[in-house]
């Protein structure tokens, strides 16, 4: 079966090719959907080829682990709500980082065993050792080159950080954890932990392959991932997840080098580079620098000064709101995270269609970071069937607000907060916002006085031309629909 | 095992490829693309399978088993989530003339 | 010598890199870019130098000499021509606000 | 000096990196200029590193060849006119292809020698052979792997085709050769020659390393490049040169594999892929398919039906033309190949500035394939100092022609030929053109009744609203300038 390794190699090559082509397609809206399928085929080919590798043991265990892992992830990924996508990405990404760290650990442990068992106990023959030897059955492991050892350790470090960091990100987004965790001297402690982890890594790379060092190395690495992520505010999580995504890619590439597997090297490196760039693009879209996201005082400032705003929120009834919009010429609808939570997109689109039938010019205005992930609102509106040409980007619609009669803000908060422009002490100061305050009238749908992701007050809700329509997003949209229908009959 | 410089070339070229692919992606694709690249590094599953396939002591086997479990989760979960997100783009992409 | 599959990976990745770099280039840069890539394959000079450096018979030496001559012409000529063309872009690029 | 090979390797790596970064910069107008410098530094580093390789012989010869080659190319490249750039690129590209073919030939010849000399003549000792042996001094050449041999032969084939093909392209553009060379059954002959070349290549790759086979292989390859290029019309040359550019890239990559030189592999492959795409983009810009360029009947059709056009060309004096434009509200200037030949861009810009001073709204309208290379007109106008905001692309200006009072066509012909839209038998039918006929008045500057690159008549010159201002481009522009100045004084 001398052709078998070549065939497996060819499969890996095909997989790498399909990954790249798949990612290429995913980065263009027209072809995005096919891209994931291409990449999926590549993955299938690579996994099947690996099963066919000639010198594999524990095939039953491998199959079991694969089936369990796939089943669990498939099930959870299928049933999770669209709004929970970011934390699921964090979770799966953490798993990948964990796997990479695990590979690194397995390599290191294998070499410890060889160093302590293999050489001294074979000759002279000592029957009392045969049992342990048979038990250990240590096969001849080729020693790792210094480069491989170094990269393996580095990959393990990065993978472990990505693992624990992603889990924290998951827990935060899932609401399992208080959003911020800050203590004095935090940065110094973090730096120290990282330094210690690196020191242990260097020891390992230098050949000190002893169990306590390995253990300390992994504990420190995991701890650092934890500590690094804890102080970061929830609003920055997508950026952080993207960063850990790039981390995992790098970890996979480095472990791929250790295993001599080019498909892993290439896929990992492509993701590492793509993820790094994507992280920067995301941070830019949220008007933050990466350094600011990781070490900034975003969360801290928000916790401090909770500004009081003069005036009161003025409520409005659904019937009045419906009438206002029914007789308006131009209406803009600004959806936000609340629409996603309430799953109100279908009702909102029903309402918009009724307005359009009445001759009202309706547009949807989408802020790039509305919701909890980039493109969140586009996805939801697309799901509800809103045609593309009614959806406007922030840059396109901002100049139109002064000519707009009514803006219906539904579940959005931070992305329409004028304090991002007026208040330099605000944690979101400098973020570009949808200029809805420039419109003639603003109607805001939300459940109560809850703050948005940044956890701050919003001057818009107290403005003279703003009316609050309290209630759950879906219920309120439903009311608007029925009031509008009542108008016509 | 591939030698140092060749590996360096592969690292460099793969990095360029990844960078260039993402270079001009629209904001609305950021999340699906993050998820898609998350799926792609699910190839770590292959590495984990190799690690478990070469493990001999119980400890190594346990480690390998967990690694395979995690890697499989990364790959399968990444696929499902990405597929679901991109599914959403179907209706709008279906009407190419619609874009204003 | 690098082995078959690794070479294949390098070929593939380099091809992707080249393709992606050019993917969205404006028409006015077509000629300078053609000239610029013409310069880049002037690296053949290095190969020709190695061939001549290892040549031993007069015939091989003659062949190598011609190859180096041609390779050097490719590299130097490609550079000069490209540089001259791109030089022309300086004045307009110098006024970024000017573009209508 | 064990660090030397590593240092050389590092230099090659740096060179490959700089090539890629340089090309990246060259593909964006803002950074293009720096790009060639980056790539140039990479080349310098790689060449210097190669000199330092430990096992090199003939260092003096190498230095001599490099110096001669560089000096000749530098000198010719510096003094050639801007209009002759495309043929210079063809020439230098052909040299690269030739070098790649030469490397392939040297490798093949080295292995022939080893096969015929090394084994039989050493033992038993035959003093009468010592002289020839000492002369030949064949060192131990490691045998090539089948893959390397195959790629080496393929690279040599492609390089040779690129060599002879590029030289033909050069000769054609330089005007040294009748533009077309067609005979019946040409395609069959070409195919036959290619087939024979491939057969000989396969024989070589299969190990038949005999001198006659090598000779036949190269002769056939060169012949094919010649035959393939001869029938292609001059207007298609930039596309063909770009294609040969990609060919040379591939040849370099393959020979790089044979030599085990990754910098060559990567640079060659990057150019191969980039050049292929660029070729397609160029063909698309000229409204042709690549297959049509290579095997199409563009030239043939043009040679055949020389349509007669009813009516006569109506001349105009420079003084009248100057007055017409001086009192116009909007003037568009359409430069073409003739402006490049006449080097009239400075005078044209002087004229345009005078018009602008008088309050006339002047625009330059650039067709993407005006001139003899993409971007040709932009380069010339930039050289003359025309600011970017006066230069309009075809797509932007075409809708504006109906509102334009006078269009000044200077040395352009094919790109303003309305028959591309009206006459399906025309060889340029389907090419998008500048719609100057829609303007109120058209003034055409050319020397006489010469045709453009496509060699066809132009109905525009006979149109009712067209006047011909005969003369060399620079002289005519000069006359316009002095007439305009005379008007004011
Ligand atoms: N897109 C991204 O990539 C991304 C990722 C992470 C974070 N972020 C950040 O998230 C924020 C997004 O802004 P946003 O304006 O979309 O949302 P937001 O600022 O988080 O505000 C959401 C609002 O919706 C209301 N709401 C919640 N559930 C609701 C329901 N069922 N029905 C009706 N209203 C409901 C809440 O008020 P009540 O509680 O009173 O109802 C809340 O004020 C920005 O700060 C952004 O930086 C964005
Ligand atoms: N840009 C590219 O990439 C590229 C490359 C290759 C080919 N092409 C092809 O080249 C053509 C370009 O069109 P074009 O309109 O720019 O040029 P053109 O069709 O070649 O016409 C040039 C005209 O300029 C006149 N002319 C020549 N020398 C002159 C001088 N010294 N003073 C004044 N007039 C002079 C000639 O007429 P007289 O002889 O009567 O003066 C001729 O009719 C297209 O067919 C295009 O497809 C383009």
UniProtKB/TrEMBL annotation, chains A, D:
Catalytic activity, EC: 7.1.1.1
Cellular localization per UniProt: Cell inner membrane
> According to the UniProt entry, where is the signal peptide?
none
What's its membrane topology? Answer: Multi-pass membrane protein
Which Pfam families does this one have? PNTB
> Is the keyword Protease in the record?
no
Q: Which residues form a coiled coil?
A: none
Question: Which residue ranges does the record assign to the NADP transhydrogenase beta-like domain?
Answer: 9-482
User: For this protein, what reaction is catalysed?
Assistant: NAD(+) + NADPH + H(+)(in) = NADH + NADP(+) + H(+)(out)
Record keyword Transmembrane present: yes
- Residue ranges annotated as transmembrane are 6-23, 35-54, 60-77, 89-110, 147-168, 188-207, 213-232, 264-283
Primary residence: membrane
Q: Please provide the record's keywords in A-Z order.
A: Cell inner membrane, Cell membrane, Membrane, NAD, NADP, Translocase, Transmembrane, Transmembrane helix
Top-level lineage group:
Bacteria
Cite the InterPro entries for this sequence. DHS-like_NAD/FAD-binding_dom, NADH_DH_b, PNTB-like
Please give the function described in this protein's UniProt entry: The transhydrogenation between NADH and NADP is coupled to respiration and ATP hydrolysis and functions as a proton pump across the membrane.
The family assignment reads: Belongs to the PNT beta subunit family.
> Could you give the subunit structure recorded for this chain?
Heterodimer of an alpha and a beta chain.
Task: Quote the protein name from its UniProt record.
Answer: NAD(P) transhydrogenase subunit beta
Species of origin: Rhodanobacter hydrolyticus
UniProtKB/TrEMBL annotation, chains B, C:
Q: Which reaction does it catalyse?
A: NAD(+) + NADPH + H(+)(in) = NADH + NADP(+) + H(+)(out)
InterPro entries named among the record's database cross-references: NADP_transhyd_a_C (IPR024605)
Please list the residue ranges annotated as the NAD(P) transhydrogenase alpha subunit C-terminal domain: 8-90
Specify the protein's topology with respect to the membrane: Multi-pass membrane protein
Enzyme Commission number(s) from the entry: 7.1.1.1
* Superkingdom assignment: Bacteria
Per the record, the coiled-coil ranges are none
Q: Which enzyme type, at the first EC level? A: translocase
Instruction: Give its localization.
Output: Cell inner membrane
Please report the name of this protein according to its UniProt entry: proton-translocating NAD(P)(+) transhydrogenase
């Amino acid at each position: 079966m001398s052709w078998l390794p070549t065939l497996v190699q060819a499969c890996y090559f095909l997989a790498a090719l399909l990954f790249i082509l798949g990612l290429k397609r995913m980065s263009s809206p027209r072809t995005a959907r096919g891209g994931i399928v291409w990449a999926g085929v590549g993955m299938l080919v690579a996994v099947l080829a690996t099963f066919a590798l000639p010198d594999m043991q524990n095939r039953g265990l491998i199959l079991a682990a694969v089936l369990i892992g796939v089943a669990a992830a498939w099930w959870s990924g299928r049933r999770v709500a669209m709004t929970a996508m970011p934390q699921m990405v964090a979770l799966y990404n953490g798993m990948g980082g964990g796997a990479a760290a695990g590979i690194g650990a397995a390599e290191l442990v294998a070499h410890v065993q060889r160093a302590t068992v293999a050489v001294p106990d074979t000759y002279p023959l000592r029957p009392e050792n045969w049992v342990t030897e048979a038990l250990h059955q240590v096969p001849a492991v080729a020693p790792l080159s210094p480069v491989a050892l170094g990269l393996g350790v580095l990959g393990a470090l990065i993978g472990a950080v990505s693992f624990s960091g992603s889990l924290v990100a998951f827990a935060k987004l899932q609401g399992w954890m208080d959003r911020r965790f800050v203590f004095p001297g935090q940065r110094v402690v973090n730096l120290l932990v990282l330094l210690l982890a690196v020191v242990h890594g260097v020891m390992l790379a230098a050949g000190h392959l002893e169990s306590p060092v390995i253990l300390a190395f992994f504990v420190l690495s995991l701890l650092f991932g934890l500590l690094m992520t804890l102080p970061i505010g929830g609003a920055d999580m997508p950026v952080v997840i993207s960063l850990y995504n790039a981390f995992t890619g790098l970890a996979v590439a480095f472990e791929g080098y250790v295993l001599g597997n080019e498909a892993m090297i290439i896929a990992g490196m492509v993701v590492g580079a793509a993820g790094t760039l994507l992280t920067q693009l995301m941070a830019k879209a949220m008007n933050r620098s990466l350094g600011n996201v990781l070490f900034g005082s975003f969360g801290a400032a928000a916790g401090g000064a909770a500004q009081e705003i003069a005036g009161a929120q003025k409520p409005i009834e659904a019937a009045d709101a419906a009438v206002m919009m029914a007789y308006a010429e131009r209406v803009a609808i600004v959806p936000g995270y609340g629409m996603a939570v309430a799953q109100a997109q279908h009702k909102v689109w029903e309402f918009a269609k009724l307005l359009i039938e009445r001759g009202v010019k309706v547009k949807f205005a989408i802020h790039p970071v509305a919701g909890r992930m980039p493109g969140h609102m586009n996805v939801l509106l697309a799901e509800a069937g809103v045609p593309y040409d009614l959806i406007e980007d922030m840059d396109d619609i901002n100049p139109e607000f002064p000519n707009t009669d009514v803006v219906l803000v539904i579940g959005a908060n931070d992305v329409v907060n004028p304090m991002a422009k007026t208040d330099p002490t605000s944690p979101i100061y400098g973020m570009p916002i949808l200029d809805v305050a420039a419109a003639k009238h603003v109607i805001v749908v939300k459940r109560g006085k809850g703050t948005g992701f940044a956890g701050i007050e919003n001057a818009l809700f107290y403005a003279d031309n703003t009316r609050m329509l309290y209630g759950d997003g879906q219920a309120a949209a439903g009311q608007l629909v029925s009031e509008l229908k009542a108008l016509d009959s | 095992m591939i030698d140092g410089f060749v590996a360096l070339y592969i690292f460099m070229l793969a990095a360029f490829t990844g960078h260039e692919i993402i270079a001009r992606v629209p904001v609305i694709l950021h999340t699906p693309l993050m998820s898609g690249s998350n799926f792609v590094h699910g190839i770590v599953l292959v590495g984990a399978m190799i690690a478990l396939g070469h493990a001999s002591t119980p400890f190594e086997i346990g480690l390998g088993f967990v690694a395979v479990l995690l890697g499989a989760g990364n790959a399968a979960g990444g696929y499902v989530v990405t597929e679901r997100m991109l599914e959403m783009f179907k209706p709008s992409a279906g009407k190419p003339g619609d874009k204003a």
